[in-house]
Specification:
With 496 residues, this protein is mainly β. Helices cover 7% and strands 43% of the residues. The chain is built from three helices and 35 strands. The strands form eight sheets. The chain has a seven-stranded antiparallel β-sheet, with no helix packed on it. Strands 1-3-6-5 form a four-stranded antiparallel β-sheet, with no helix packed on it. A four-stranded mixed β-sheet has the order 2-8-7-4. The N and C termini lie far apart (81 Å).
Length: 496
């Protein structure tokens, strides 16, 4: 009877396939229950990690959290207990179903290889039934190399941008010998550098003949294979002075002066490599905010915040501050200077303030000298600043010194005193663990029209770079560590 229904070849093939599949399912099911307590069994359906977001990644300071996705619900306590990162990276864990997020307490230290392991964890079963053990999971990731750039002062490096990979101890010259660089900034996560330079033979006159260029950051051991800079803004008809570039590299703001009419000075903007256009915004020092969309400008007795577009109306105005030092990385806070022009008791002092977007204006430090620069450290709760104070005597002498400031408590911890102040520049590493600074050497006998000059017009004979490592817990009496680098240059700047 059955033969009548399966007389066709296709029917017989279908029946055979059904039989084979049924047998296979039976074997797998039986194997699964047989292997529940034997993780070496080939039929063990063990839990596994489906995805690790940092697997084999190259990370920077803005990478603050990773996600691990399991293929099924896991015993969360066991996972948290048995997750090991080597070297240690303190953080907080949160769960959303099968996904575990790990958020770092501080930016990841640069120049380090890491290994993540998860062992001895089980899947989560309802009731008293014990879930299967997951096979050990191991993965690796690393943080970016410690690297920075500076302007060289000796030999073939003189007046040129030098990129130095501190992790690999490798040096690369990024600009050609015919240009003397005056200032530069990284953009696009450190992939490029925007710099102001003039022809080397112009000497001091080159400060009035600056043009803007950009160059990719490419490490190369062969000095004959230099990256070629691209002209961004010429000096035809206008003198180019201060400039700033947005973090994404799409917007450049330049202070320009009309050569035919020095009273005609304004801020200009270059957007997406297009022709420059006037912003019709006059003022002193300026900075592009971290949001890449707004601009902070010193205007009269205050700091104006306005959209990064021509003829824009002011979004906000901070009337009692005369100088913006720096923004926090997320733009939620800033360090500003009050010159105390309306305070008779502080008429000869300057005051450092912490200001945030919640309306907080907190006074931190008073000085009778200068507040040269400040940068926010880890989690924007620490400020590292270069200040000066007047030394007693008839002669006006400023002594520079570094401090570490706890923004929450207001505590100020001295880090290092310098002998004299000669246009010292500082830069804080992206992970907040090291300060770079220079010590410029001035030679009074060097002609004023030399190739390298300070902002004040003094000839630079040489300059050395230094590394200052602040203490992690200064409140416990920990001291800063100072290291001299075998690098001769000035204007050091950490790569993002």
């Amino acid at each position: 009877m059955l033969a009548k229904y399966f007389s066709e070849p296709i029917d017989r093939n279908a029946l055979s396939l059904i039989g084979v599949l049924s047998a296979a399912i039976a074997v797998v099911v039986a194997g699964h229950y047989t292997c529940q307590n034997n993780n070496q069994c080939i039929f063990a359906n063990r839990p596994r990690v489906q995805n690790f977001s940092w697997g084999e990644a190259d990370l920077g300071a803005k990478d603050r959290a990773f996600i691990i996705t399991f293929d099924r619900p896991m015993d969360q306590r066991e996972v948290e207990k048995n997750l090991v990162i080597t070297p240690a990276l303190p953080g907080k864990i949160s769960w959303a179903g099968r996904r575990m997020a790990y958020t770092l307490e501080n930016p990841i230290p640069y120049g380090t290889d890491y290994e993540l392991q998860i062992t001895n964890v089980r899947e989560q079963y309802a009731g008293n039934r014990q879930g299967q053990m997951m096979a050990p999971f191991t993965s690796s990731f690393r943080s970016r190399d410690r690297a920075f750039a500076y302007i060289g002062t000796q030999g073939i490096e003189q007046g040129r941008i030098i990129f130095y990979n501190l992790t690999k101890q490798r040096k690369t010259i990024l600009t050609p010998p015919g240009l003397t660089v005056v200032d530069f900034q990284f953009y696009d996560g450190g992939k490029g550098i925007l710099f102001a330079a003039a022809e080397s033979q112009l000497g001091f006159e080159g400060l009035r003949q600056l043009q803007l260029y950009q160059v990719p950051v490419v490490e190369n051991d062969n000095p004959q294979e230099l990256p070629k800079p691209t002209l961004v803004l010429d000096n035809q008809g206008f003198q180019n002075n201060q400039f700033d570039v947005s973090e994404d590299g799409k917007s450049i703001v330049v202070q320009r002066v009309n050569r035919q009419n020095p009273a005609d000075f304004d801020l200009w903007m270059l957007k997406n490599q297009q022709k420059p256009e006037r912003l019709k915004v006059q003022g002193g020092d300026f900075q592009i905010a971290p949001d890449n969309q707004s601009l902070a400008v010193a205007r009269g007795e205050g700091i104006g915040i306005l959209p990064l577009q021509p003829e824009a109306n002011t979004l906000d105005f901070l009337p009692k501050f005369g100088q913006l030092l720096t923004f926090s990385s997320d733009g939620s806070a800033a360090a500003l200077v009050n010159f105390n022009t309306e305070d008779a008791q502080k008429r000869f002092q300057r005051t450092l303030f912490f200001v945030n977007n919640l309306g907080v204006q907190k006074e931190l430090v008073d000085t009778d000298g200068s507040i040269v620069s400040c940068e926010f450290g880890r989690n924007n709760q620490t400020l590292y600043c270069l200040l000066t104070k007047l030394l007693p005597g008839d002669e006006y002498i400023e002594q520079p010194y570094f401090v570490q400031i706890n923004v929450n408590s207001g505590e100020v911890f001295p880090l290092l005193k310098l002998q004299d102040y000669r246009d010292t520049q500082m830069s804080l590493s992206p992970d907040g663990l090291a300060l770079l600074f220079d010590q410029v050497i001035i030679d009074p006998e060097t002609p004023a029209d030399s190739r390298l000059n300070t902002d004040g017009g003094e000839a630079i004979a040489d300059s050395q770079l230094w590394l200052l490592i602040p203490p992690l817990r200064p409140e416990l009496g920990q001291q800063a560590e100072l290291k001299a680098l075998s690098l001769m240059g000035f204007r050091p700047l950490w790569a993002p």
